[in-house]
Q: What sequence folds into this?
């Protein structure tokens, strides 16, 4: 059993979103992404399905030249190989659910974003 919180130890990066792995089990990884207003995660995709929840704030979620404005409580899921990008309209906390076989580093180019384990 693992217990954590999306709100504990929040860090807002000065230039880029901050990605933190919260929980990993036999099936999934639960990731928190903390955005300051105006920060973005550039276009990327994964070979596994993902689920994204807006826990706090508002995010512009771009897929195939369509912008979805996602607000607190909204959830979106994507099939594999769907290119997408995100930009924060306000300070935001995002929960990302990934397959255990997926790699945060590869998918979000987070080596430059600063992953915290």
A:
């Amino acid at each position: 059993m693992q217990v954590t919180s999306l709100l504990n130890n929040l860090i807002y990066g000065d230039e880029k979103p901050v990605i933190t792995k919260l929980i990993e089990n036999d099936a999934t990884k639960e990731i928190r992404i903390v955005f300051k207003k105006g920060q973005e995660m550039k276009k990327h995709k994964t070979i596994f399905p993902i689920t994204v929840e807006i826990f706090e704030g508002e995010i512009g979620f771009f897929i195939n030249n369509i912008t979805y404005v996602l607000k607190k409580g909204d959830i979106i899921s994507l099939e594999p190989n769907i290119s997408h990008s995100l930009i924060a309209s306000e300070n935001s906390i995002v929960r990302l659910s990934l397959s255990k076989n997926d790699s945060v580093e590869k998918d979000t180019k987070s080596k430059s974003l600063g992953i915290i384990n």
